[in-house]
Amino acid sequence: MNRILVPIDFSPASISAWKTALYFARIFRAAVRVIHVCPKGFWEPYMPLLLETALREQREEEAKTAFGKWLDKWSVNGVIEIQHDLLYGDVDQTILRVAKDWKADLLVMGNKKDIQLKKKWLGSTVAAVLKKCEQEVLIVPDGKEINSIGSMTFAMSFEEERVEAIESVLLFSGRIGSRLTCLNIHKKKQEEKGIPKAEILKRAYKQELKEGLIQFDSVIDNDFEEGVKKYLHLHPADLLVLMGEESDGLFNIFSPQSQAEELVGSNQLPVWVLPNQHAELGQLIQGWNKDNY
Hints:
Blueprint: E1 3-7, H1 12-28, E2 31-38, H2 49-73, E3 81-88, H3 91-101, E4 106-111, H4 125-132, E5 136-141, E6 151-156, H5 166-175, E7 179-186, H6 191-204, H7 206-210, E8 214-220, H8 224-234, E9 239-243, H9 258-266, E10 271-274, H10 280-284
Parallel strand pairs: 1-2, 1-4, 2-3, 4-5, 6-7, 6-9, 7-8, 9-10
Antiparallel strand pairs: 5-10
Protein backbone atom coordinates (compact mmCIF):
# COMPACT_ATOMS: atom_id res chain seq x y z
CA MET A 1 0.00 0.00 0.00
CA ASN A 2 1.76 3.11 -1.25
CA ARG A 3 -0.92 5.79 -1.67
CA ILE A 4 -3.94 6.61 0.47
CA LEU A 5 -6.51 9.16 -0.70
CA VAL A 6 -8.73 10.88 1.87
CA PRO A 7 -11.60 13.07 0.62
CA ILE A 8 -12.81 15.36 3.44
CA ASP A 9 -15.54 17.93 4.03
CA PHE A 10 -14.24 19.04 7.48
CA SER A 11 -17.12 17.24 9.24
CA PRO A 12 -16.68 14.99 12.33
CA ALA A 13 -17.00 11.98 10.02
CA SER A 14 -14.02 13.27 8.04
CA ILE A 15 -11.97 13.41 11.24
CA SER A 16 -12.58 9.68 11.77
CA ALA A 17 -11.50 8.95 8.19
CA TRP A 18 -8.41 11.14 8.53
CA LYS A 19 -7.22 9.49 11.75
CA THR A 20 -7.78 6.06 10.22
CA ALA A 21 -5.80 7.00 7.09
CA LEU A 22 -2.89 8.17 9.24
CA TYR A 23 -2.99 4.88 11.18
CA PHE A 24 -2.54 2.86 7.98
CA ALA A 25 -0.04 5.33 6.53
CA ARG A 26 2.24 4.85 9.53
CA ILE A 27 2.02 1.05 9.30
CA PHE A 28 2.65 0.84 5.58
CA ARG A 29 4.75 4.02 5.26
CA ALA A 30 2.34 5.23 2.61
CA ALA A 31 1.88 8.68 1.14
CA VAL A 32 -1.38 10.41 2.02
CA ARG A 33 -3.28 12.82 -0.18
CA VAL A 34 -6.17 14.70 1.40
CA ILE A 35 -8.56 16.55 -0.89
CA HIS A 36 -11.56 18.80 -0.46
CA VAL A 37 -13.89 19.32 -3.40
CA CYS A 38 -15.87 22.56 -3.55
CA PRO A 39 -19.14 21.59 -5.22
CA LYS A 40 -20.92 23.75 -7.72
CA GLY A 41 -24.41 24.88 -6.79
CA PHE A 42 -27.17 23.89 -9.18
CA TRP A 43 -27.86 27.59 -9.81
CA GLU A 44 -24.32 28.57 -10.76
CA PRO A 45 -24.55 27.86 -14.51
CA TYR A 46 -27.27 30.51 -14.66
CA MET A 47 -25.26 33.16 -12.82
CA PRO A 48 -23.43 36.05 -14.45
CA LEU A 49 -19.78 35.14 -14.93
CA LEU A 50 -18.47 37.75 -12.49
CA LEU A 51 -20.82 36.61 -9.74
CA GLU A 52 -19.97 32.94 -10.31
CA THR A 53 -16.24 33.75 -10.20
CA ALA A 54 -16.63 35.74 -6.98
CA LEU A 55 -18.59 32.93 -5.34
CA ARG A 56 -15.98 30.38 -6.37
CA GLU A 57 -13.13 32.51 -5.03
CA GLN A 58 -14.95 32.96 -1.73
CA ARG A 59 -15.45 29.20 -1.36
CA GLU A 60 -11.84 28.49 -2.23
CA GLU A 61 -10.61 31.01 0.34
CA GLU A 62 -12.81 29.50 3.04
CA ALA A 63 -11.62 26.01 2.15
CA LYS A 64 -7.95 27.09 2.23
CA THR A 65 -8.43 28.49 5.71
CA ALA A 66 -10.16 25.30 6.84
CA PHE A 67 -7.37 23.20 5.34
CA GLY A 68 -4.74 25.14 7.27
CA LYS A 69 -6.57 24.72 10.56
CA TRP A 70 -7.16 21.04 9.82
CA LEU A 71 -3.52 20.20 9.18
CA ASP A 72 -2.37 22.25 12.16
CA LYS A 73 -4.82 20.51 14.51
CA TRP A 74 -4.39 16.89 13.51
CA SER A 75 -0.93 15.44 13.99
CA VAL A 76 0.80 13.92 10.99
CA ASN A 77 3.93 12.70 12.75
CA GLY A 78 5.33 9.48 11.35
CA VAL A 79 3.70 9.81 7.93
CA ILE A 80 6.05 9.79 4.95
CA GLU A 81 4.28 12.34 2.77
CA ILE A 82 1.21 14.54 3.09
CA GLN A 83 -0.27 16.25 0.06
CA HIS A 84 -3.40 18.39 0.20
CA ASP A 85 -5.44 19.83 -2.65
CA LEU A 86 -8.47 22.05 -3.03
CA LEU A 87 -10.52 21.10 -6.07
CA TYR A 88 -13.69 22.38 -7.65
CA GLY A 89 -16.45 20.48 -9.45
CA ASP A 90 -18.79 17.54 -9.09
CA VAL A 91 -17.79 15.94 -5.79
CA ASP A 92 -18.04 12.21 -6.42
CA GLN A 93 -16.77 12.44 -10.03
CA THR A 94 -13.80 14.51 -8.91
CA ILE A 95 -12.92 12.03 -6.17
CA LEU A 96 -13.11 9.13 -8.62
CA ARG A 97 -10.96 10.98 -11.16
CA VAL A 98 -8.27 11.85 -8.61
CA ALA A 99 -8.23 8.27 -7.27
CA LYS A 100 -7.63 6.94 -10.78
CA ASP A 101 -5.16 9.58 -11.97
CA TRP A 102 -3.12 9.53 -8.75
CA LYS A 103 -3.20 5.70 -8.76
CA ALA A 104 -4.45 5.55 -5.19
CA ASP A 105 -4.34 2.13 -3.54
CA LEU A 106 -6.99 2.98 -0.96
CA LEU A 107 -9.70 5.57 -0.42
CA VAL A 108 -10.68 6.31 3.18
CA MET A 109 -13.99 8.09 3.61
CA GLY A 110 -16.09 9.05 6.60
CA ASN A 111 -19.77 8.15 6.80
CA LYS A 112 -22.19 10.34 8.74
CA LYS A 113 -24.46 8.48 11.14
CA ASP A 114 -27.63 9.90 9.67
CA ILE A 115 -26.92 8.75 6.12
CA GLN A 116 -28.58 5.51 5.04
CA LEU A 117 -26.10 4.49 2.38
CA LYS A 118 -28.44 2.00 0.75
CA LYS A 119 -30.70 4.90 -0.30
CA LYS A 120 -28.33 6.07 -2.97
CA TRP A 121 -31.00 8.23 -4.56
CA LEU A 122 -30.52 10.65 -1.65
CA GLY A 123 -27.28 11.77 -3.27
CA SER A 124 -24.75 10.39 -0.80
CA THR A 125 -21.20 11.04 -2.02
CA VAL A 126 -20.01 7.96 -0.17
CA ALA A 127 -22.60 5.78 -1.92
CA ALA A 128 -21.72 7.20 -5.33
CA VAL A 129 -18.00 6.61 -4.83
CA LEU A 130 -18.53 3.14 -3.42
CA LYS A 131 -20.65 2.23 -6.42
CA LYS A 132 -18.14 3.26 -9.09
CA CYS A 133 -14.68 3.23 -7.52
CA GLU A 134 -12.04 0.90 -8.97
CA GLN A 135 -9.89 1.06 -5.84
CA GLU A 136 -10.35 -0.36 -2.36
CA VAL A 137 -12.64 1.83 -0.28
CA LEU A 138 -12.59 1.94 3.52
CA ILE A 139 -15.71 3.51 4.99
CA VAL A 140 -15.31 4.75 8.57
CA PRO A 141 -18.42 5.68 10.58
CA ASP A 142 -18.43 8.95 12.47
CA GLY A 143 -16.57 8.48 15.76
CA LYS A 144 -15.23 5.02 14.85
CA GLU A 145 -11.71 5.78 13.68
CA ILE A 146 -9.30 2.84 13.61
CA ASN A 147 -6.24 2.98 15.87
CA SER A 148 -5.84 -0.77 16.28
CA ILE A 149 -7.41 -3.87 14.74
CA GLY A 150 -7.58 -6.92 16.95
CA SER A 151 -10.06 -8.84 14.82
CA MET A 152 -11.25 -8.78 11.22
CA THR A 153 -14.26 -10.54 9.72
CA PHE A 154 -14.12 -11.35 6.01
CA ALA A 155 -17.70 -12.09 5.00
CA MET A 156 -18.27 -13.94 1.76
CA SER A 157 -20.13 -16.77 0.18
CA PHE A 158 -17.95 -19.81 -0.48
CA GLU A 159 -20.47 -20.66 -3.17
CA GLU A 160 -19.47 -17.53 -5.09
CA GLU A 161 -15.93 -18.79 -5.66
CA ARG A 162 -14.35 -15.88 -3.83
CA VAL A 163 -12.18 -17.98 -1.57
CA GLU A 164 -9.07 -17.13 -3.59
CA ALA A 165 -9.07 -13.73 -1.83
CA ILE A 166 -8.58 -15.33 1.59
CA GLU A 167 -4.82 -15.58 1.10
CA SER A 168 -4.54 -11.87 0.37
CA VAL A 169 -6.72 -10.80 3.28
CA LEU A 170 -4.82 -13.15 5.60
CA LEU A 171 -1.55 -11.56 4.51
CA PHE A 172 -3.00 -8.14 5.28
CA SER A 173 -4.36 -9.16 8.68
CA GLY A 174 -1.01 -10.67 9.58
CA ARG A 175 0.78 -7.44 8.71
CA ILE A 176 -1.40 -5.41 11.08
CA GLY A 177 -1.42 -8.10 13.79
CA SER A 178 -5.11 -8.96 13.54
CA ARG A 179 -6.97 -12.25 13.88
CA LEU A 180 -9.00 -13.10 10.77
CA THR A 181 -12.39 -14.79 10.69
CA CYS A 182 -13.62 -16.01 7.31
CA LEU A 183 -17.39 -16.01 7.51
CA ASN A 184 -19.41 -18.09 5.08
CA ILE A 185 -22.97 -16.85 4.56
CA HIS A 186 -25.04 -19.44 2.73
CA LYS A 187 -28.66 -20.26 2.16
CA LYS A 188 -30.29 -23.34 3.60
CA LYS A 189 -30.36 -25.09 0.24
CA GLN A 190 -26.61 -24.45 -0.15
CA GLU A 191 -25.69 -25.96 3.21
CA GLU A 192 -24.58 -29.32 1.84
CA LYS A 193 -22.27 -27.61 -0.66
CA GLY A 194 -20.90 -25.07 1.82
CA ILE A 195 -19.81 -27.51 4.49
CA PRO A 196 -17.37 -29.52 2.29
CA LYS A 197 -15.81 -26.29 1.02
CA ALA A 198 -15.33 -25.07 4.57
CA GLU A 199 -13.65 -28.33 5.53
CA ILE A 200 -11.32 -28.10 2.53
CA LEU A 201 -10.34 -24.57 3.56
CA LYS A 202 -9.67 -25.68 7.12
CA ARG A 203 -7.31 -28.34 5.85
CA ALA A 204 -5.62 -25.86 3.52
CA TYR A 205 -5.03 -23.43 6.42
CA LYS A 206 -4.28 -26.05 9.04
CA GLN A 207 -1.10 -24.36 10.26
CA GLU A 208 -2.70 -20.89 10.43
CA LEU A 209 -5.62 -22.36 12.36
CA LYS A 210 -3.23 -23.97 14.79
CA GLU A 211 -1.41 -20.66 15.30
CA GLY A 212 -4.66 -18.79 15.87
CA LEU A 213 -4.18 -16.51 12.86
CA ILE A 214 -7.40 -17.51 11.12
CA GLN A 215 -10.67 -19.22 11.86
CA PHE A 216 -13.66 -20.26 9.76
CA ASP A 217 -17.29 -19.83 10.69
CA SER A 218 -20.64 -19.93 8.93
CA VAL A 219 -24.15 -18.58 9.14
CA ILE A 220 -27.21 -20.00 7.42
CA ASP A 221 -29.39 -17.14 6.21
CA ASN A 222 -31.23 -16.51 2.97
CA ASP A 223 -30.24 -12.84 3.17
CA PHE A 224 -26.50 -12.11 3.03
CA GLU A 225 -26.71 -8.75 4.79
CA GLU A 226 -28.91 -10.04 7.60
CA GLY A 227 -26.61 -13.01 8.11
CA VAL A 228 -23.59 -10.75 8.51
CA LYS A 229 -25.45 -8.45 10.93
CA LYS A 230 -26.54 -11.36 13.12
CA TYR A 231 -23.02 -12.76 13.26
CA LEU A 232 -21.39 -9.43 14.10
CA HIS A 233 -23.94 -8.88 16.87
CA LEU A 234 -22.76 -12.09 18.53
CA HIS A 235 -19.11 -11.85 17.46
CA PRO A 236 -18.01 -8.18 17.31
CA ALA A 237 -15.07 -7.27 15.08
CA ASP A 238 -12.97 -4.17 14.55
CA LEU A 239 -13.15 -4.32 10.76
CA LEU A 240 -15.49 -5.92 8.24
CA VAL A 241 -14.10 -6.89 4.82
CA LEU A 242 -16.37 -7.49 1.84
CA MET A 243 -15.95 -8.34 -1.81
CA GLY A 244 -17.75 -6.19 -4.34
CA GLU A 245 -20.10 -8.95 -5.38
CA GLU A 246 -23.33 -8.62 -7.25
CA SER A 247 -26.46 -9.11 -5.18
CA ASP A 248 -29.03 -11.76 -5.97
CA GLY A 249 -31.99 -10.84 -8.09
CA LEU A 250 -32.61 -10.40 -11.82
CA PHE A 251 -33.86 -6.86 -11.44
CA ASN A 252 -31.20 -5.63 -9.06
CA ILE A 253 -31.18 -1.80 -9.13
CA PHE A 254 -28.05 -1.45 -7.04
CA SER A 255 -24.40 -1.51 -8.04
CA PRO A 256 -22.20 -4.63 -7.84
CA GLN A 257 -21.37 -3.43 -4.31
CA SER A 258 -24.94 -3.21 -2.99
CA GLN A 259 -24.14 -5.64 -0.18
CA ALA A 260 -21.47 -3.23 0.99
CA GLU A 261 -23.86 -0.28 0.68
CA GLU A 262 -26.41 -2.05 2.83
CA LEU A 263 -23.93 -3.03 5.50
CA VAL A 264 -22.14 0.30 5.62
CA GLY A 265 -25.45 2.11 5.95
CA SER A 266 -26.73 -0.04 8.79
CA ASN A 267 -23.65 -0.93 10.84
CA GLN A 268 -21.48 1.28 13.02
CA LEU A 269 -18.39 -0.64 11.97
CA PRO A 270 -15.60 0.26 9.54
CA VAL A 271 -16.10 -1.61 6.27
CA TRP A 272 -13.32 -2.33 3.78
CA VAL A 273 -14.68 -3.04 0.29
CA LEU A 274 -12.62 -4.85 -2.33
CA PRO A 275 -14.09 -3.85 -5.71
CA ASN A 276 -15.32 -6.42 -8.16
CA GLN A 277 -12.58 -7.52 -10.60
CA HIS A 278 -9.88 -5.86 -8.51
CA ALA A 279 -6.39 -7.09 -7.73
CA GLU A 280 -7.11 -7.84 -4.06
CA LEU A 281 -5.32 -6.72 -0.93
CA GLY A 282 -2.29 -8.86 -1.66
CA GLN A 283 -1.18 -6.59 -4.47
CA LEU A 284 -1.60 -3.54 -2.25
CA ILE A 285 1.02 -4.77 0.15
CA GLN A 286 3.59 -5.71 -2.47
CA GLY A 287 4.90 -2.20 -2.07
CA TRP A 288 6.02 -2.78 1.52
CA ASN A 289 9.58 -1.81 2.24
CA LYS A 290 10.82 -4.94 3.97
CA ASP A 291 13.83 -3.05 5.32
CA ASN A 292 11.43 -1.24 7.63
CA TYR A 293 10.25 -4.38 9.41
